[in-house]
Amino acid sequence: MERLKAARLVKARGARPPVLERIRVPRPAGGRSRTRPDHLSGDTAYSSRRNRRYLRRRQIKHTIPERRDQRAHRRRRGRNGGRPAGFDPARYARRNEVERLISRLKLHRAVATRCDKRAYIFHGTVTGAAIRLWLKP
Known about the structure:
The chain is mainly α.
């Protein structure tokens, strides 16, 4: 059964998703959270050159598929297009665990509709729904 380890609410505006800069991985023994996860999985929305460069610079291993147009552009450039991005299909297939967890959280009406005006109140609603899922036998 999948468990929610951390939640981050972000606005989805602009060309650069701010979620990459706000990643925090809690430590099991407590203390300051890590800002560099062991591995990051994302969908094609995060496959931009800027995001990949950011992840490489921070030495974060990632599994993000290339979009078709990016693949075609790289092939069209030939040798100058660079090598294809590394991609592990088995690890990418495990991404659906996160999707299933999100759908289970959305079974709670308050999470699905998001009627809360303030982000911190909605974060509390998501936390409450996650606690209910965690305590459910």
